[in-house]
């Protein structure tokens, strides 16, 4: 019996080691999207695949069963702006996750009214490391010290939060929750105000838990039903990988898969945001060979296919855009098996 058990354990260990060394790295972290490679998860990552515990609900968020002594927080990194067809320009964190503001907060002086269970459903965005998006006045960014000592990011005085039910970049399920929570615009105002579609303030307002259907794409396509990563047939490029918003996914020729390294850092990430980890079960039509999470030197987690880091392009404004194709002779769309599409041989 012991001999059989030892053999099984040895086989399991060998399989794990093979998956980790396939990308030229030797140590693994938590499992998220595939096999995570590198350092441990950053602060704020939850114990389930969605990031912060998808069990929280109403306007304040009833966090039944949550036993953490301190509510989760989120690291902002390089802030970006997402051009939402429903909400207009929406402020996001370095992973492309929507940032929110709370009507019951105050700005003069800045003060948060979201504590306890509320802060479990609406994780606080910390101020440390926050960098403004291109074209946004840095003086708009500030901080407020919460009762627990955490310094929370403010934009034009409004404290910033994420929403526990937003599972991936492009989600805005917190919009209109309780009639008090709204996605934030780059200047700290409500993103719903002045949105081009005229739907803004109504998105999600009819659902107490924010489970509204997110529509995406200037071409009228619905992207809410898209998996985290899937395949789209482009009329010029053929089959290419797209993210959960239907946006084209790219690779950078200066990156390396063996060993896994990135050559896109700093200002590069403002134009080429990383694709955040996507659970392997939330994909369709793509290869899962080398489907691992890359722990970047800057602390971000990045999804890979065949060990190649994946990005989107800030110049793509709607699903179907491929404006990043061939940029600099080094950026190309990605095929379902992780290869470059249209790159010179």
From TrEMBL:
Signal peptide: 1-22
Pfam families associated with the record: Lipoprotein_15
Transmembrane parts of this sequence: none
InterPro entries in the cross-refs: Lipoprotein_repeat (IPR005297), SCO0930-like (IPR047910)
Region of interest: Disordered: 27-52, 63-82, 188-230
Gly residues composition bias: residue spans: 27-36, 195-209
UniProt keywords, alphabetically: Lipoprotein, Signal
NCBIfam families reported in the protein's UniProt record: SCO0930_lipo
The protein's name: SCO0930 family lipoprotein
Lineage of producing organism: Bacteria, Bacillati, Actinomycetota, Actinomycetes, Kitasatosporales
């Amino acid at each position: 019996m012991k001999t059989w058990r030892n053999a099984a354990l040895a086989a399991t260990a060998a399989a794990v080691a093979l998956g980790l060394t396939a990308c030229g790295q030797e140590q693994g972290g938590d499992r998220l999207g595939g096999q995570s490679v590198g350092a441990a998860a950053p602060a704020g990552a939850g114990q389930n695949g969605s990031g912060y515990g998808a069990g929280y609900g109403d306007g304040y968020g009833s966090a039944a069963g949550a036993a953490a002594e301190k509510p989760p927080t989120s690291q902002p990194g390089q802030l970006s702006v997402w051009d939402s067809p429903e909400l207009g320009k929406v402020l996001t964190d370095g992973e492309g996750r929507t940032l929110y503001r709370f009507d019951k907060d105050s700005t003069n002086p800045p003060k948060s009214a979201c504590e306890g269970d509320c802060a479990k459903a609406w994780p606080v965005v910390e101020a440390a490391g926050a960098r403004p998006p291109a074209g946004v006045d840095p003086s708009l960014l500030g901080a407020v010290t919460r009762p627990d000592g955490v310094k929370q990011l403010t934009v034009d005085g409004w404290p910033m939060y994420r929403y526990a039910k937003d599972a991936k970049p492009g989600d805005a399920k917190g919009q209109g929750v309780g009639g008090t929570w709204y996605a934030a615009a780059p200047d700290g105002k409500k993103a719903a105000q002045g949105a081009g579609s005229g739907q803004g303030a109504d998105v999600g307002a009819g659902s107490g838990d924010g489970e509204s259907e997110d529509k995406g794409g200037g071409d009228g396509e619905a992207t809410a039903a898209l998996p985290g990563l899937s395949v789209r047939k482009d009329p010029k490029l053929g089959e290419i990988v797209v993210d959960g918003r239907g946006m084209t996914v790219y690779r950078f020729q200066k990156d390396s898969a063996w060993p896994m390294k990135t050559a896109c850092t700093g200002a590069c990430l403002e134009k080429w945001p990383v694709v955040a980890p996507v659970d392997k079960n939330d994909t369709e039509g793509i290869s899962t060979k080398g489907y691992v999470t890359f722990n970047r030197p800057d602390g971000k987690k990045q999804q890979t296919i065949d060990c190649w880091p994946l990005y989107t392009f800030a110049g793509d404004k709607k699903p179907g855009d491929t404006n990043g194709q061939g940029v600099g002779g080094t950026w190309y769309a990605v095929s379902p098996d992780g290869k470059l599409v249209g790159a010179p041989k």
